[in-house]
Amino acid sequence: MKNPRALRMLVTTTATLALLAACASSQAPAPTTTTATTAPTGPMSFFISSTGSGKGADLGGLAGADALCQRLANSVFTTGGSSVKTWRAYLSTPPAFASGTTPAVAAINARDRIGAGPWFNAKGMLIARDLAHLHNGNNLSKDTALDERGNVVKGRGDTPNEHDILTGSRADGTAFAPQTDTTCKSWTSSTEGSAIVGHHDRVGPLPENWAKSWNFSHQSAGCSQEALVRTGGSGRLYCFATN
């Protein structure tokens, strides 16, 4: 017959081990640490104008185009928001050579008119961190290049197609040489001339870089409202807050 004391010690040890195992299994698992990456957000400082001038590419010059951007921004934010910002149209104008007693006129580059960034759309999504990012690797697309009220602008495949946005600019945001009209006479003509446009939806008839450029895709068929519509636009502008 086994030793009763040894038997009691064995039973006690077994019970203790079972209790410890039960406690261990009931403990909550150790928390895990995860790192979330949050995209930057901010108040609206970029939009595509919901309308043009109604006179084709005659915007009343740069001043008229800027006034259109400011008016549309003010229509959305009446106090404490975009109304306190200064808005500029993303448009270039070419230089002019000296002629007779008329002095030369320097070019105006779209990239020099719009501040330093960052820029966010009407839903707070980042469009570009700065000028370098805007002109190389920005977040512009049909889903992000919204109008001042946060609406998607119709693009290629929609009816009507309105993806042509007036810019008069090269891919780096600078003006063209003056020999060929690329700005409908510095945004004052609704008849003669032509203007450089970009595709806000980054889509064109061919899978080539020019067709995917947001600011330098092709020239318009003319400067009238009808010509802009026929090319695939409606006279809309890119508007940026400078502050």
Can you summarize this structure?
Helix content is 22%, strand content 12%.
Describe this structure in words.
Helix content is 22%, strand content 12%. Strands 1, 2, 5, 6, 7 and 8 form a 6-stranded mixed sheet that branches. Strand 3 and strand 4 form a beta hairpin. With 243 residues, it is of the alpha+beta class. It is globular, with a radius of gyration of 30 Å. The chain has a single domain, classed as Roll (Mannose-Binding Protein A, Chain A), CATH 3.10.100.
Question: Notable features of this structure?
Answer:
about 240 residues; alpha+beta; Mannose-Binding Protein A, Chain A; 6-stranded mixed β-sheet; two-stranded antiparallel sheet; 8 strands; about 20% helix; globular
